Amino acid sequence: MIRDGLYIGLMSGTSMDGIDAALVRLHRGRPELLRALVHPWPEALVGRLRALSGGSTTLTELGELDHLCGLAFAEAAQRLLQEAGVEPGAV
């Protein structure tokens, strides 16, 4: 069973219209949505991700894009916490 506390959920779909972020409190197994937002993808990154559908890329490019996606997700999480007035250590 998941412990009571604050949790962040992050996801993005294939449309790449933004990163969905949610801050949820779990208490006795029940979720409560505290805050949600859609954080925009950096435009330059979206262009590079869309170019992947062309079929040819390198392992280096994939690694770099993975890193940049991680940074974008981190920005979304930081913005979510800031807007909710929650310190990162509380999650």
TrEMBL record:
This is Anhydro-N-acetylmuramic acid kinase. The keyword Lipid metabolism does not apply. InterPro entries: Anhydro_N_Ac-Mur_kinase. It comes from the Bacteria. Keywords: Kinase, Transferase. One of its GO terms (biological process) is amino sugar metabolic process. The lineage of its organism: Bacteria, Pseudomonadati, Pseudomonadota, Gammaproteobacteria, Chromatiales. PANTHER family: ANHYDRO-N-ACETYLMURAMIC ACID KINASE. One of its GO terms (molecular function) is kinase activity.
